[in-house]
Amino acid sequence: MRVLFLTWRGPEDARAGGAEAYVRRIADGLAARGHAVTWFCEGRPDAGEAPWEPPPGGPAEPGPERPGFRIVAGGRGLGQRCAAARFAVAHRSHFDVVVDQIAVAGFLAPLWSPLPVLALVHQRAGPEVWALEGPAALRRAGPAFEALMLRPYRDTPFVTVSQTTLSDLRAAGLRGRAHVAYNGVDPPRRSAAPARAPRPTLVFLGRLQARAKRLPDAIAAWRLVQAELPDTELWVVGRGPAPREAPPGVDFHPDVSAPDRDALLQRAWLLVATSAREGWGRMVLEAAAAGTASAVYPAPGLVEAARATAGVVARQESPRAMADLVVPLLRDPARLRAMGEAAREAALRFRWPDAVDVWEEALRKSMAGPGARRR
Description:
globular, seven-stranded parallel β-sheet, 13 helices, Rossmann fold
């Protein structure tokens, strides 16, 4: 198959997050199986538009400095959507299917693509995220705008990353064939797991400047825990710059490498996740693979991830409820060790090859389905 992915951000974008990491693993996996994969993303000021040549019938040769798929960058903002449509239509003879990633707004490919379209949706923002992210003037209208942007995809087949998001999309009116391809996880990269931190240690994992991750809630919960267990530490790990004036006692680890992130997760006693909403809860899965269980807010996506990896869920979304959940666990290291072992075993059932299997099936069915439009 010859697959064209359309996404807002590319894999090298400084703003790239879990959605881009997911697409990269799927693109790598498809290319490794002999499919020709092209990824069209927003142009960057430091890179400009990448040149493109029609694929010679197979995927690019993978190598240490070259991915197994092709990256094309063009346009910015709304201009990128227009550039992507022009590119896909102009080169339609070189592709079999278009994958349209929806991040609040997609590329509206069902309205213009001469090729079959498969949508990719990681999560709905919903009122929870709109209340925290985006321009203030759009926060009230955000959910209605998001619903409007989904309407062209009502009958389009789609892939999503969790049962939570699948339910959200069905409620929003999407009735096309659905496929759930969960994130996979890599075992920690260090051959010998480091010892746990000597003092009770909580870890927060997520983009540091994403307000929907609600880092201030995690810090507030840690302070409440400290009131009962004064030795407790909090490590904050994630992409983005640390604040100039970090709260006393909070240890920030910005932009660490994947092996260093895994080592921190292995040493921590418990991960706390306070997001307003997640498509799945990738940080919960990564912590579980490192043998560290999670305590999460009862937010969409987080609950599913925690229950799948032996985690626990707070009674409500508040620092007080999180602290009430965490304190008894930190007082019982034996229970935490057992939870961590169960989390590791559960996490290793989430494999990237399984996700690629789902994608191959979804792509084949989107090309052969009754709603597929042919050139």
